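Exercise 7.
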Amino acid sequence: MSPQSLLSQQDLASSSFAAMANLQVKSLGSIDYVEIDRPEASGEAKQLIIFVHGTPGSYSAFRSYLNDPVMQERFHMISVTRPGWRSGEDAKVPSLDAQAALRPLLDMDRSGRGALLMGHSYGGPVIARTAMNYSGLVAGLIFVATTGDTKLSGPRWYNRFALLLPRFVLGASLKGANAEIMPLRPQLEAMRPLWKNLTMPVLIVQGDRDRLVHPDNAQFMRAELVNADVRYLPREGLGHFVLWEEAELIRDNLIELFSADSAGAIHTSAQ
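Solution. The predicted structure, written as tokens, is:
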């Protein structure tokens, strides 16, 4: 990820903080999260969807989905701020296993259908690792502009150069993002044999002009998810911000793919 683009992503997420100020920020262990669960008149529980941001970022990255009346009508929504991103002073947590410790949130699904996980950018391998660790609690995955291929996801020259720069020069957000990117490749390599174990439906959204995540990462995941029902949405002419630019399209596809008619209840026993 380039420094300039990372700053743009952080600024975009931060700009929505005031708009979401009416939501109560809750804490659970090393994460913060916001939650929207509008009760049904029937009393029926809505399926849980958990949003996981990239690097840098926060729960506010998914504000357009949280504020969407259609999403509010259909889902119990939780958006997290991952470990290490509560503030610029937080120590970063570059372990995907540690980032994927979302079991307490997965247990909040009361629908009996299991939770959906949606990740953007670095949030993609986080939700993949979560599903690999707790597959019995996960009903579906949505990957948006996500990294996964070890050959395409390692640190670049500017990540290595950034190691030499002091924090006051690089800034807390970019220094923190670098701390997550540098050790990513071997962790993705360790995950590679586990993709075939994922059998839940998957939605992949990827712009062909993404300069932060190589578009071929989508093809890698399609090839590795041999036992999953995969829907792929290539977005011509779009880049890394497809999460926001195509919010309605993503919303409509995830509702269609994970509707009650097409995805039955799952057993929610721990794996």
